[in-house]
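[Automated response] Your request has been received and processed.

Submitted sequence:
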Amino acid sequence: MSRPDAKDYSLSRATILSEGYKGLLVVNGGGAVALLSFISQIVDKSPRLAQSAFIGVAIMAVGLFLALLIPFLRYHHSHAAQKLEAADRTQDRKTSYFYTYIFFQYASAVVFLIALAYLVTTAFPVVSEVPIKKCSESPNKALNPDAANNAAPVS
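Generated structure:
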């Protein structure tokens, strides 16, 4: 069995980068969609919590934007590196596009973590103000206390 050559390693890295890119899209885009759904459910009940969630969506949108730029930067880097190779300048094949798309990959993941940290630190105080219902209360009594009092006794 032969050892992998440089082309095999290059193809492997390209596949890993593509999968990582898809992950960034899912994490940032899915997080934003989930928060938008959450906002629609709580906007009337807790405007302060909805505002925190909306800011979280905005932060995740920045991460999504950074992730969406990655394939374009990879394309331009590949094109520029090919031109450098054709000019027999193989020692400086890493272009500014290369460094930019690497930075955007990490920045997109960091922005997602910033959004999570923001949501946890701003939403926790709001959620902790909400009174906790006792587990022993019946669901009907918790939703409508008058209905439980007017119920006919069971014989």
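Summary generated for your ticket: Residues 50 and 122 are 11 Å apart (CA to CA). Residues 6-149 form one domain.
If you did not submit this request, please reply to this message.
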